[in-house]
Amino acid sequence: MSTTFSSLPVVDVHILKASESTILNTAGHQELGEKLYDAFATVGFAYLIDAPLGFTQDELFELSREFFALPLNQKMKLAKKSFRPSHVNTYRGYFPTQPHLTPDNFKEGFEIGNPTTDHNKRCSTRAQRINLAEPNIWPDAQLFSKQERLEHIYNELQNLAANLLSLLAAPLGKDPEFFSSWLDNSLSTLRLLHYPPVTQATEQGSEQGEHAVRLSCPPHTDSGVLTLLHQDATGGLEVLNAAGEWIQAPYIPGSIVVNVGDLMARVSGSRLKATKHRVRAPPPNPDAADAFGLSVDGEEGSVVYGDFVRKKMATFVEFREESGYETGTTEEM
């Protein structure tokens, strides 16, 4: 369990910009490794600032917006087998929102893996449903031309993760190259996520009487080693401390949020903490369809104005589908 922290620590990693190797053993590197260890041992999370990356957050989010702006039928061509049984990709690709199944996990995403992974490597038995070594799947280049750029961003983030792991090796009492083999044919994932505005979501509150909140992603711990998160000004990330309080992790311009996953906690003998976290739902966009995205509060709870009006309109004869006129509809999937 983490400590009763009230904010996430901020760690400056500018020293990594001068490094040419993943073996980092100067006094400055050792000091940075200790700072990271302390952050992960007490909170499990930290902000990284001044990281050695050759892309900006604005560029990354613009790439993400470009992908999610694709028509749904094009994104569904990349859907994983669990969403399109005829597809062969089980681990990489696109997943749509599922508000009817998981109303508190309202997001869509696109995932790619290591561009240089040996894709001839397959699961050892047919019983394993998910092929962790499958190749990436991409949209048509005429619709989305940023494959090469995203692969480059993947490699940069992978190198940053390798440096962080090398720094953590000494405080954990391990050889500096202990984690190197973990990154050969890595199963690391670069995941683009889009959290649409939530109009109806599960509301969760604590037993201590916390006000109910709307969630886009429910409380969880990450499964892997380290997670590097770029968040925008929308925010919504909250981290659970030992007192059972949800601590906001607001956006810091130019920063990367890094946190420990379950596997890293296990390898460290639980010295490093995989801390539970969640994502609050973003508010409805008041610019969408004028005021129809606004949430209106009242004595009987809140309601989204557009949803309320549409429900009421369904009772009006002029808006009923069984009006006697033939209508044509199209469904895009």
TrEMBL record:
Highest rank taxon of the organism: Eukaryota
Domain Fe2OG dioxygenase: from-to ranges: 185-319
PROSITE patterns: FE2OG_OXY
InterPro entries membership: DIOX_N, IPNS-like_FE2OG_OXY, IPNS-like_sf, Iron_ascorbate_oxido_reductase, Oxoglu/Fe-dep_dioxygenase_dom
Alphabetic keyword roster: Iron, Metal-binding, Oxidoreductase
Gene Ontology MF annotations: metal ion binding; oxidoreductase activity
Protein name according to UniProt: Gibberellin 20-oxidase
